[in-house]
User: Fold this.
Amino acid sequence: MTLQGLPCGLWLQFDDHDEIVCHADSSSYHVDQTIMHEVGHMVLGHGGSTGADATLRELCPDIDFDALESVMKRSNFDDDQEGEAETFADLLMSAAVSRYRRSSSMHDFLGLT
Assistant:
């Protein structure tokens, strides 16, 4: 799923699934970085806010926000959770491209061939 007009990603947590939303015009690398960043929030147990504000509802009219359990969106770049998720993403991304860190399990996780 992509979202026009947002520079960063969102992690939308529903009862039965999660969705990651990112900017439609991002480069492939930035989309991958955004996905890994949001996965970092998931793996690290970061909590989002409950409910969606009016702006998010307007930007994502096709999402059933009544079923939304929480949303993680970047509102402060100095936040500790954002730094942790960014570090997580950086480490995964560097492992994916480093010839010294490539492994079949990393390729399976990232969906690489």
Remarks:
- The first strand starts at residue 10 and ends at 14.
- Strands lie at 10-14, 18-21, 68-73.
- The longest helix spans residues 80-97.
